Amino acid sequence: MPQAALEGLNQYQDEVDGAADYAARVATAKSAFSNRNRRTNAIFRDVRAALAKMAGDAVRCAYCEDSAADEVEHVKPKDLYPQSVFRWPNYVYACGPCNGRKRNKFSVIDAGGTMVDITRARGAPVVAPVEGLPALIDPRSEDPMQFFDMDLQGTFVVLEALDLNPVDEARATFTIELLGLNRDLLLTTRRDAYLGYRARLSEYSARAEQGAEEAELDAIRSSLLRSPHPTVWEEMKRQAHLIEELRMLFAAVPAAIEWRHFPNAFAY
Ligand SMILES: [Zn+2]
What is the per-residue pLDDT across 232-259, written as a single tens digit (0 to 9) for each? Predict the structure, then answer.
């Protein structure tokens, strides 16, 4: 993110933080965000450009990894956390259906380790939510691969990783449900992604063996890394030693174990 854009966001945030009380800060956050989150606003053009880079060459949604990302989404909802409405680390690029599904639903883990639903019901008083660790896994500051496993050998569902502590397990379950990570369409498109990656890697291996030029091999690699569902690819690398067909493919193209869709999100 350009420094000028970060400073611009901070100034927008100062206006929100300066409102008289919590309810006023929520109201200001909502109106200020909708006024500024426009293509005519230079700061938000920079925000969108940086988010698009983080979303990989295919510019896919940070949540489902399937649809095109085109909405600036707050990991912590602006209705509940006006103090984060213009904070760069609170933004991801998401698709409309994921954004709509998530809306302002949110839970936190309170000081006693209990999950508390802090979604504000329509018409409920606008008061600050209970403090606590957000239940939603934050893709900007946490590595989802540590919280989830994916079944690559049948269902393509996302599951809570084994050996999580109870709080992290509850957070993983909450995230799967809130974002609908196992909706039917995603199970189908993850399977398609798996088959596509497998085919591309196999093609790479065959062409390399036939002595193809570097440029042709690079084109196959770029095409693989432009495909949606980057986590399917990461999971294939992680499980390469467990699944025979993957073990053989990665043994034929050892360099592929280092191929990534995009740099680590923390770099932004
Ligand atoms: Zn999505």
Answer: 999 999 999 999 999 999 999 999 999 9
Q: Find the 149 Cα to ligand 1 centroid distance in Å.
A: 19
Cβ atoms 193, 227 nearer than 8 A: yes
Residue 266: is its pLDDT beyond 80?
A: no
Cα(229) to ligand 1 centroid in Å equals 11
Name which of 5, 7, 24, 8 is nearest 16 in CA terms: 24
For residues 47 and 5, is the Cβ–Cβ distance under 8 A?
yes
| CA distance linking residue 36 with residue 10, whole number of Å | 13
Residue given tokens 């890394």 in the structure block: 225
CA of 179 to the centre of ligand 1 (A): 8
Q: Which of 114, 103, 133 is nearest to 30 (CA)?
A: 103
Q: How many residues are given for the chain?
A: 268
Distance 175 CA to ligand 1 centre (A): 13
Query: How far apart are the C-alpha atoms of 35 and 29, rounded to whole Å?
Result: 10
